[in-house]
Specification:
Length: 300
Amino acid sequence: MASEKTRKTIRADILGFCMGVRRAQEIAETAAKNFKGTRIYTIGPLVHNPKVLEDLNQIGIKTLNNLQDIDTKEISDCSFIIRAHGISPAIEENLQNRGAHIIDATCPKVKKSQIKAQELARKGYSIFLAGKANHAEIEGILGYAKDENSRPSFCVTVENASEAEKAAQELYKNASNARTALLSQTTNSQEEYRKIGDAIKKYYPNLEIVDTICAATSERQKSLRNLLEKAEAVIITGGKDSANTIRLYEIAQKSGKPCVLIENAAEIPPAFFNYKTIGLSAGASTPDSVINEIESRLNT
Ligand code: SF4
């Protein structure tokens, strides 16, 4: 085993909480102070990280996975925090109409995508949304794609280039002159987005491509690649169901270097204490406290 004197831990230059998640957590903590003693829920998990959810629970903020789990009569006594992913305006309005107190922690970058989808839909555009169909961010943006009379516009979710080409072909059969636009889930890769755009352009060469990708994901991936050049082995920390954390782990695996995905210091495999240089990276939903805990465990 390398002693703590010879073992070196190197952090990725950019790791852990992104701006939107940090902001959402701060908003939640402020709500816990301001509305102490009342019932506060986040609509869905604030982040995909068990430690963060446990900490929120400690300060009185519960995760609500399904709005139906709340008794209708009790809704007006509760505060609901919209997480960084945002929600559909129909759900928000529905809660407001029933007297709920809404605290909006939608990431400003996601809000920009929602507003853009709304603008395009009102101008009569047919919209392609590059992302995962059941992802909360996409479901929220879809809710904004309504025309002037609040009727849903043509808005289809495509996960990859082949789905995009099929969807464009279908639309073209009925609306070859449609004005089309493409928006992306903020966490998509630029490369995948470009391929999706190219596939739609086969049918709609004038496709308007809106840049809605957030750099937070690619910055963490780039920092990890740099880290892999310096470290003997790498630890990725974050929720095991966090998509961006899993992506970091996949990049580390592809490098061929020993790597592991863990949620806390107790999960560090004993073999990792044998390496002299250990790289540390973390997904955008990993709090500083977990990163610090792992680093100090490696350094003791
Ligand atoms: S990844 Fe980007 S868009 Fe998503 S919450 Fe973080 S800062 Fe906002």
